[in-house]
Amino acid sequence: MIRMTELSIGQEVELELGGKAKVAGIIGSGGQGTVYLVEYNAMKWALK
Amino acid sequence: MKDPEQFKANIKRNISDGAPSNKFIWPRYLTKSMEDGTFGYLMEVKPDSFDSFVDILNTYKLKVDPLTGRAVREPVRFTDLKAMVTACINIANAFRQLHRAGKSYQDLNDGGFFINTDTGAVLVVDCDNIAPDGANFGIGGKPGYMAPEIVRGIAKPDTQTDKYSLAVVLFKLLFRGDPMEGEKVVKDVCLTEAAELKHYGSEALFVYDPNDASNRPVRGIHDNVIKFWRIYPDYIKDAFIKSFTEGLTDPNKRIIENEWQQLFMRLRTEIIACTCGRTNFTSMFEKQDSTTYRCPKCGMTFATLGFSNKEYRMPLYIGCKFYECDIEQNSDDFIGVAGELVENKLKPGVLGIRNSSEKVWNVKMPDNQFYKVDPGKGCPIWPGLEIDFGDVTAKI
């Protein structure tokens, strides 16, 4: 797995399909990097 | 990572294909690549009602108290034996669905699952290495879960190596220990990379290999494995013996997912929850005669129901259930309840089977005549009970 660059809360990440996901928090981090809680299309998602 | 672009293209293809079932927390959207070339993907958030497999094996999880900021231990245990066995059925079924979709997981380990300990529902996570069978983008796996041929460097992960890792996961869930860690491994005080290669690769030896006792579990260190090996019926132990003896060197001898699923469906059927509090498999109850079990603690007896499509019988106790797959020949539905043993609310002590399915049953009543039993209705249990479900029949 390619570890994604570290993100900060409030940062926006562009998606390939268009639109942006906004980082709302950290769900967890471990051997495979950090999983972030993000908001996209008015829903909460996990971003790895 | 062999080729980041290929890795990304694979996730893109998986997004487009969709998840094999709702048991997978599957990648849904890709992010654009960042300036340094890294990227990520969006997936659904895991529900709070699921605990990690690691926490389940540890029997606790750490939760931060919001008032003090301190981490406190919270127990993580299955509500009952049925939930744990249902989790095994679900894990086997998830990998059956994945492999039937022509893909392999490649990195099956304790970090790849979340389980609802009340119901046994399973969610497979970390799905980013899943690839069409035969393709590999650089992942090898986690020590202790990898098939010996990967540890030895002579094979890459595929569906056959997934089958080995699946057996390890199931063994750890049932026996709470490592299938290869016994006396031989303990003698190597420090598990170096070379020792790991030996014990999990070139010289891997199952702790209960019937032909070689040199790696048996050690009392005081592997107490869980010793304790639980005694409890499980032979057909479960035989499946692990096959997986970790013949299946160590010959991937074709490994137990396939559907076989695991059938074995654990049988194990779930063979649970008895006695009113005295003893809950265990029929193998730990006494057999009064060929169709009756007896509780060794309180002496309570349990009649059994034999289905025409099964070689084994289902013990009858209040709350026991059978499922759609039990009454329909080609059904794979092991979650949908078809029937349940209940106590008559108006006549305590009178037991009956409730038709929880959507089919009308044809049931032989105590007057030896057959009557229709509609969905939602019940029939009394008596020594001559026969139920005709259509495809399948059952008799006491």
How does this structure look, described?
The complex is a heterodimer of chains A (48) and B (396). Chain A has one domain. Helix content of chain A is 0%, strand content 56%. Chain A is built from no helices and four strands. The mean pLDDT of chain A is 88. Chain B is of the alpha+beta class and 396 residues long. Chain B folds into two domains: 4-260, Transferase(Phosphotransferase), domain 1 (Orthogonal Bundle); 272-395, Tumour Suppressor Smad4 (Sandwich). Chain B is 30% helix and 21% strand. Chain B has twelve helices and 23 strands. Chain B has helices at residues 4-17, 53-58, 81-100, 148-151, 159-175, 183-187, 193-202, 223-231, 234-244, 246-249, 257-269, 324-327, and strands at 29-30, 41-43, 51-52, 60-64, 71-75, 103-104, 113-115, 122-124, 131-132, 271-273, 279-281, 286-289, 292-294, 301-307, 313-315, 321-323, 337-343, 351-355, 361-364, 370-373, 378-380, 386-388, 393-395. In chain B, a hairpin with a 6-residue loop joins β13 (292-294) and β14. In chain B, α3 runs antiparallel to α5 (159-175) and α3 runs antiparallel to α11 (257-269). Chain B is globular. Chain B starts with a helix and ends with a strand. Chain A binds chain B through residues 1-5, 13-17, 21, 27, 30-32, 37-38, 40, 44-48, and chain B through 1, 4, 7, 12, 25, 28-32, 34, 36-46, 111, 126, 128-129, 139. β4 (43-47) of chain A pairs antiparallel with β2 (41-43) of chain B.
